[in-house]
Design brief:
The chain is mostly beta strands and about 325 residues long. It has no helices and 25 strands. The strands form six sheets. The chain has a five-stranded mixed beta sheet, with no helix packed on it. β12 and β13 form a beta hairpin. The protein is globular.
Length: about 325
């Protein structure tokens, strides 16, 4: 994702850790934090180039790919829907068996997202899918009209032993995805299929980002509260690891490519669980935590963070809403 504006690093919202904030149960604000509600498990967020729209995943039963209006804070279903459009590109995705055959819409679950900016108004959306098959589902996002439209174009099915979490598109074509169950990162190319990324087997992977030149992976080590910078296509492999101080989930690249925004959990699955956001400098790997908040009813903990104009938005895997709050001047 390349569309995040420059981030201001001075934001800190500290809430004493204790009982969960309860005012959000009916979608009411909690302090400066407001919500876009009636979304099921919006685990990941991706900004459509231009900043007027956000795509949210749905990683729980009944989840959908949703399109959220950045200004109006309204959401509509993009996929699956009765009006969905399919245009299978078998040349780019020769191993894909074809469009999803869903027995019912609730059989679809969208986990991690990656939006690759195209040369014009048509962009690529890569979605980790769980359901009738474990796969990366690929869509075109046409942002040239009144609102973006989604067209399914292909898929990459996971080998039997892999279960994906996050995905990125590779600059030369193909995709890479994290597999927490096997504890590593995998690449797929149409010519060679899936191969393990060298040096990724101790990264405790969850979230994933890639540098614009494709030379570096950034892997969120959720279980070990770390981030790994891992070289790509280089022998010997170069690796650097930094402690995050909480369990980082999804990662998002800043627009200038110099920093990553990491969201994740502190005190996971305890009454003291917190939502956290940190900014990581990609040259120095310096980590600055810019947000922490106690668990909120309906929004258990942050899993993704983006910035849109003067707002920071958070997604969650355990809840039915997206949170947003003002960024500092």
């Amino acid at each position: 994702m390349r569309a995040i504006p420059a981030l201001v690093l001075s934001l800190v919202v500290w809430t004493p850790v204790g009982a969960a904030a309860s005012g959000a149960a009916a979608c009411e604000p909690v302090g400066d934090i407001q919500f876009i509600c009636d979304l099921i498990g919006p685990e990941d967020l991706a900004i459509v180039p231009g900043g007027g729209w956000v795509i949210a995943s749905g990683n729980q039963a009944g989840g959908r790919i949703q399109l959220v209006h950045a200004r109006d804070k309204t959401a509509t279903v993009l996929f699956p829907s009765p009006t969905q459009v399919e245009r299978f590109d078998a040349g780019r995705y020769p191993s894909c068996p074809g469009p999803l055959d869903l027995p019912e819409p609730d059989a679809f679950r969208a986990h991690g997202l990656y939006l690759a900016k195209g040369p014009g108004h048509v962009h690529g959306l890569y979605v980790v899918h769980h359901g009738v098959r474990e796969s990366i589902e690929v869509f075109e996002v046409d942002a040239g009209g009144a609102q973006p439209e989604l067209v399914w174009v292909g898929c990459v099915v996971a080998p039997g032993e892999l279960g994906f979490n996050s995905v990125v598109a590779l600059p030369e074509g193909g995709v890479a995805a994290t597999s927490p169950g096997t504890g590593d990162v995998w690449e797929w190319h149409a010519e060679t299929g899936w191969t393990q990324v060298p040096g990724s087997d101790d990264t405790a992977p969850n979230g994933l980002e890639i540098s614009s030149d494709g030379r570096w992976f950034y892997v969120a080590g959720w279980r070990e509260e770390k981030l790994t910078r891992l070289s790509r296509g280089r022998t010997p492999v170069e690796k650097a690891v930094v402690d995050i101080g909480f369990r980082p989930d999804n990662l998002r690249m800043a627009a200038d490519g110099s920093r990553i925004l990491a969201a994740g959990h502190g005190n996971y699955r305890t009454p003291q669980e917190t939502s956290n956001v940190a900014v990581i400098d990609l040259q120095t790997l310096a980590v600055e935590r810019i947000f922490q908040h106690v668990r909120i009813d309906g929004f258990e903990a942050s899993t993704s963070a983006i910035q849109i104009g003067d707002e920071i938005w958070l997604g969650t895997n355990r809840g039915e809403r997206v949170a947003y709050f003002p960024a500092p001047d």
